[in-house]
Amino acid sequence: MSDKETRERKIFRLSRRKALKGLAAGVGALALPGKDASASFWEAFFQKNFRELGKDDLRKVLARMEKEYGAQYGRAVKVKATPPIEGVQYGYALDLSRCIGCRRCVYGCVRENNQSRDPQIHWIRVLQMNKEKGVYLEEAEQYYNPAKVPEPGYFYMPVQCHMCKSPPCTKVCPVQATWTEKDGLVVVDYNWCIGCRYCMAACPYGARHFNWKKPGLPAAELNPDTHILGNRPRPVGVVEKCTFCIQRTRENPGRYPACVEACPVGARKFGNLLDPESEIRYIIENKRVFIFKEDLNTQPKFFYFYAT
Amino acid sequence: MKMIWEFFKGTLVLVFRGSKAYYAWVFSLLVLMAVGVFAYAHQLQAGLIVTAMRDQVSWGFYISNFTFLVGVAAAAVLLVIPAYVYHWKPIKEIAVLGEMLAVSAMVMCLLFVTVDIGRPERFWHLIPKIGILNFPQSLLAWDVVVLNTYLVLNLMIAVFILYNLYHRREPNKSFTTPLILFSIPAAISIHTVTAFLYNGLGARPFWNASILAPRFLASAFCSGPAFMIMLFQVIRKYTKTDIKDEAIFKVAELIAYSMFLNLFLLGAEVFKEYYSDTIHLAPMQYLFQGLHGHTSLVPYIWTAMLFNVTAFVLFLVPKTRENYVTLNIGCILIFIGVYIEKGMGLVIPGLAPDVLGEIYDYSPTGIEFLVSMGIWATGLFVYTMLLRVAIPILNGDFHVGEDGVTPVIADERFIVRRQGLVSRTPEAEA
Predict the structure, then answer these.
(1) Assigned domain for B90 exists
(2) Judgement on whether residues A142 and A284 belong to the same structural domain of the protein
């Protein structure tokens, strides 16, 4: 028997064993906990929606998660629940005349926000578009891969969550597992999401991503500074999305989102929409700004502009 | 209480007894169900990565089957309306079979949704008070409400009527009539709400057309009754139930009207998209012509078109409608045609090209097929079990004894090929 055949047989055997194990797990999931099933399993199972957690509940939940991730990744993980800051509405602006399509923002985001490396999940998608056609999605290319960017004749349009003021995604969620926070951030409770993916069908910007399998996140690459509604490690079978780096922007002093920091050409601008002196307000008031899919009336807090 | 318990014991005896054919049928269903359970266990273990769904096409074969089956369930009403509203007798006798079909289809619908979600163990988040049901904001919350209501309603009506017939008395009309009348808007609502679930998404131009809900209803009134016509023939051939030709042909006639409406509404939609030729034409092109070299749906949708149009002609002409060969061909064509059109033909073009213009060619994996097959087998199993009890009650082989408590089973055989009179015309009866 050739090596390949042996390998294939082994794979088959393994997958069959896995199937049996899965069956046992599936049946067992609703039965009483076994000997080695920890109490934290049931605590997680019966955990309330984030917005219904009392102060003490929340403290317990955060401690449990830190313990859980600590054991899972073999290193200390901080899980914060920093609340919104009064008088702040986060806004984002992206300069299409500057973006060179290098995707440093994409990978900076992946590292900061603990996205799955295998399979890859990207909260930011960069579209390569023909300058002659303008913003024409039907011919947009996400998988461009030249030796050097930017390529002549093309411009680049990164797309991520637009933090809509009227978000179609939160409206459709059957269990209110996703909502808009006071500071305008649209977030997901990974412990409440049932994984129906209705929000993904509703989002006009492709900003929501599903964990089709257990996220592959090597312990060495884990960012241990996490927020419960943001970049903490995600379970399989739930939806996740960009939070404008909630774990950075809500701190005092706040930090810019990782994508803003990663951009080598300064195409990304971020700030408080309620502060008349902010850079973001200056851009909106003085530059040529356009809103992606404006006709859908989602009222994004993410703006594209041309500085030059 | 004792009477109900004895009745229940009687039904248990019934489902365990039958002919060889009955055992073989039930056993094969159980095998397919077991295969489905194993496939699902594998999916639970590995995650939904074992399906072909991805972020671009985030709903696939499971939700397509769900959508189609909501239509089948809703179509039970087609038999209920003439039976109860117009007191048209030949259909009244078999309406209860339609209600049980609705129950079985609902069970399949709920299973298809369950296997599609990423965290099925969190289903309790949907239960009001214990969890949070986002009602009335989310159309999915509406769907949870109407689907479960419809399931319970049909189950109640069918059980109540059968339990009374078992006791050899006319079911109390003041109880059944309001429920039955309520089941008519309920049937329309399950399909309307399911259509609205897609319809309400501005991000998906293929679904965001106001004609969607009427189209859903029109196609449901084709596929459901087509299935019932075939089923009626099987039932009267293999059990002691008489279903009159008249009833079958009447249902076939109703299918012809529904199919006309279905094709008309589709034509209206195709015209609007192609003539106005906006950027929203892309999904329609992807479905009917292929787009940028992606043509995976094209052969399917044209098969569906061909089948639907052929069946429409077969059902429209009285001669072919009342000939069992052409009638059955028509039924099969409609069932497959609507299955494609209201299944993958509806769900996939909504998602491809996706909101950023990417086209991901979705085609279900083996696991998705096996799980779906298991669910279809479960639905047929549920329906078989319901029929196993209902048919002997309807033809008087299962009823309460002289003492008013002990059940009597006159004939234990079930699924036996009948000799002679299988199709009776009203004239022959007279």
Answers:
(1) yes
(2) yes
B401: how many CB neighbours lie within 10 A of its CB?
Answer: 12
Measure the CA–CA gap between A205 and A212, rounded to whole angstroms.
19
The phi and psi torsions of A208 (rounded to 5 degrees) equal: -105, 140
CB contacts of A193 in chain B (<8 Å) are: 118-119, 122
ipTM score assigned to the predicted complex: 0.91
Indicate whether A180 belongs to any domain.
yes
Q: Is residue A207 part of a domain?
A: yes
Residue A197 token pair: 């993916």
For residue B318, what is the enclosing H or E element?
A: helix B318-321
The whole-angstrom distance between A176's CA and the closest CA on chain B is 6
Q: How far is B216 from chain A (nearest CA, A)?
A: 19
CATH number at residue B304: 1.20.1630.10
Q: Taking residues B216-221, report their average pLDDT.
A: 92
Q: How far apart are CA B168 and CA B119, in angstroms?
A: 47
User: Is B398 in a helix, a strand, or coil?
Assistant: strand
pTM of the shown model: 0.91
Half-sphere exposure of A249 (CA within 13 A, CB side): 28
- Domain residues for A279? 78-308
Structurally, chain A folds into a number of domains equal to 2
Q: Which of B41, B45, B357 sits opposite A140 (nearest CB)?
A: B357
Q: Say if the Cβ atoms of A23 and B55 lie within 8 Å.
A: no
Closest CA of chain A from B422, distance in Å = 45
pLDDT tens profile B64-92: 999 999 999 988 776 777 777 667 766 66
